[in-house]
Specification:
- The complex is a heterodimer.
- Chain A is an alpha/beta fold.
- Chain A has five helices and four strands.
- In chain A, strand 3, helix 3 and strand 4 form a beta-alpha-beta unit.
- In chain B, strand 4, helix 5 and strand 5 form a beta-alpha-beta unit.
- Chain B starts with a strand and ends in a 35-residue tail after the last helix.
- The chains are: A alpha/beta, B alpha/beta.
- The complex binds iron/sulfur cluster (2 copies).
- One iron/sulfur cluster binds next to helix 7 of chain B.
């Protein structure tokens, strides 16, 4: 499944990850094109409904990137995001999508290279997990696997 | 408020496994405040159920609506237009009262999405504690505002029992002994002598022992 190109949605806090992405761009750093970024005013704006919506609409992976702990511009937004992500992971496990398709990362606005690294790490992680059960590619993969088994 | 908690998603999914289209109804009352069955939770449950079913190749259609209160016929009218013929089941995210009101009103298969826990309040954001056992005849004025019916594990009226240890109840070292709390409180208030009065046997017929209860307030009745 090495040719699998996952669709990943990254919810990025304006004050850190979003600026870090900008910086990564100015530094001409390469990161996988699988990431679709959505700007958040703070990672504390993370709403489980929106995370689920991403999965429902075909994302293979989702991550929220907020400021380093202790550095949130709104004091505790990233801590709240962390708790919500933990809860959403549990829910994704419960419905069989898999909690490890969702992660939370912390970085600062000056960490351009780390932004690229996170995108890399997440893409790798989702590649290993394969397409989401809601992705049509998942079924194809399953069918090919059972055909191969039959042969 | 009535405090409730969501049932596991798989359990709710099982209750509606034969349905193709469901109406998920939230309640804007207590369960919105205790973050179990308000508009947001309706969105989360509906989305989770749809994904679970899509994964099983049995797509589920959902309609979401949250009304002000499910325990009031007045608001129930707002539901009428959503209860269409193609709705196979209604998932109520209210407490047990709301679920029953919806079931009584509409000729549909209605299932609860929550487990109704108790009458209580918020101890801190995200934590709720039980406070009242709905006994039908409040005696808080005798106990310094601490309810022995529900906060004492044995509902003792002349406590404490012999199991009270270092201020904790014998059922669990994490649980405060209600009678220790009552004693401390009465002491602070300078009313310890009140505790010397023997509390007679409680009239439980005013509670659940008397069967389902009803409150009638004639002066506000319209019919
Ligand atoms: S004494 Fe009865 S009514 Fe009063 S708080 Fe306790 S259970 Fe509720
Ligand atoms: S230890 Fe206290 S709270 Fe527990 S049962 Fe005895 S009197 Fe009630």
């Amino acid at each position: 499944m090495s040719d699998f190109q996952p669709k990943i949605v990254a919810f990025c806090c304006y004050y850190c990850a979003y600026s870090a992405a900008d910086l990564a761009g100015s530094m001409r750093l390469q990161y996988p094109p699988n990431i679709r970024m959505v700007e958040l005013p703070c990672s504390g704006k993370t709403d489980i409904r929106v995370v689920l919506e991403a999965f429902e609409n075909g994302a293979d992976g989702v991550y929220v990137a907020g400021c380093l702990e202790g550095d949130c511009h709104f004091l505790k937004g990233n801590i709240m995001a962390k708790r919500r992500i933990k809860q959403a992971k549990k829910l994704l496990d419960e419905i069989g999508i898999g909690g490890d398709r969702l992660e939370m990362f912390n970085l600062s606005g000056s960490m351009g290279p780390r932004f690229a690294e996170v995108a890399e790490e997440m893409t790798e992680q989702i590649r290993k997990l394969g397409p989401s059960p809601l992705n049509p590619a998942y079924k194809e993969k399953k069918e090919t696997a059972s055909k191969e088994e039959a042969q | 408020m009535i405090v409730a908690e969501g049932k596991p998603i798989a359990e709710v999914a099982k209750l509606i496994e034969d349905a193709n289209k469901v109406l998920v109804v939230g309640c804007g009352g207590c369960v919105t405040v205790c973050l179990a069955g308000g508009e947001k939770e309706v969105g989360i449950l509906a989305s989770a159920l749809r994904m679970l079913r899509k994964k099983e190749d049995k797509p589920l259609e959902t309609v979401e609506i949250t009304i002000s209160r499910q325990c009031d016929p007045e608001y129930m009218e707002q539901l009428e237009k959503y209860i269409t013929d193609d709705i196979d089941a209604v998932v109520s995210m209210a407490c047990g009262v709301g679920v029953q009101f919806v079931a009584e009103r509409f000729n549909k298969w209605v299932v609860p999405a929550l487990d109704t826990k108790f009458a209580g309040g918020a101890l801190e954001h995200g934590v709720w504690g039980e406070r009242c056992g709905l006994c039908g005849e409040c005696i808080l004025y005798k106990t310094g505002g601490i309810c022995p019916i529900i906060r004492c594990s044995k509902s003792i009226l002349n406590g404490p029992c012999g199991g009270s240890q270092d201020g904790k109840c014998e059922i669990d070292t994490e649980v405060d002994c209600a009678w220790q709390l009552i004693y401390d409180r009465m002491k602070t208030l300078g009313k310890l002598d009140k505790l010397l009065e023997i509390e007679p046997i409680k009239d439980w017929s005013k509670s659940r022992d008397g069967g389902p209860r009803k409150v009638v307030k004639e002066d506000v009745m319209i019919k």
